[in-house]
Design a protein that fits this description.
- By secondary structure, the chain is mostly helical.
- It has one domain (about 10-85): Alpha Horseshoe (Serine Threonine Protein Phosphatase 5, Tetratricopeptide repeat).
- It contains six helices and no strands.
C-alpha cells in the first residue's frame, strides 16, 4: 500500500505522527516530506510546512513540493490593498 493511501481518513495529528516516524526511517523520501508539509499547511503550521517543502526540494528539485511551495508563497504574499485604503 502506498504511504499516501494509508493516510486517507486520518486526523491531521495522527497523519503527521505517522509521517514523522516514516521520515525518521526514510529521510530521503521527498514525497513523504511533501505530504507532511501539506498536512502541516492544512493545520495552520505554516513554518513547518515551508520547511518540509524546502527539504523535499533539496532532495529532489523536480518534486511536487515545488508547486506546493509556490502556492504557499503566493498565499503568504497576497495583500488586499483595498482593506488598507478603503
Amino acid at each position: 500500500m502506498e504511504l499516501k493511501d494509508s493516510l486517507k481518513g486520518l486526523s491531521t495529528d495522527k497523519a503527521i505522527e505517522i509521517l514523522d516516524k516514516y521520515i525518521a526511517e526514510h529521510p530521503d523520501d521527498d514525497e513523504a516530506l511533501t505530504l507532511r508539509g501539506m498536512r502541516h499547511w492544512g493545520a495552520g503550521h505554516r513554518s513547518q510546512a515551508m520547511t518540509d517543502y524546502l527539504s523535499a526540494l533539496r532532495i529532489n528539485p523536480s518534486s511536487r513540493a515545488a508547486m506546493a511551495l509556490k502556492a504557499a508563497q503566493e498565499i503568504l504574499d497576497y495583500r488586499n490593498k483595498d482593506l488598507y485604503n478603503p
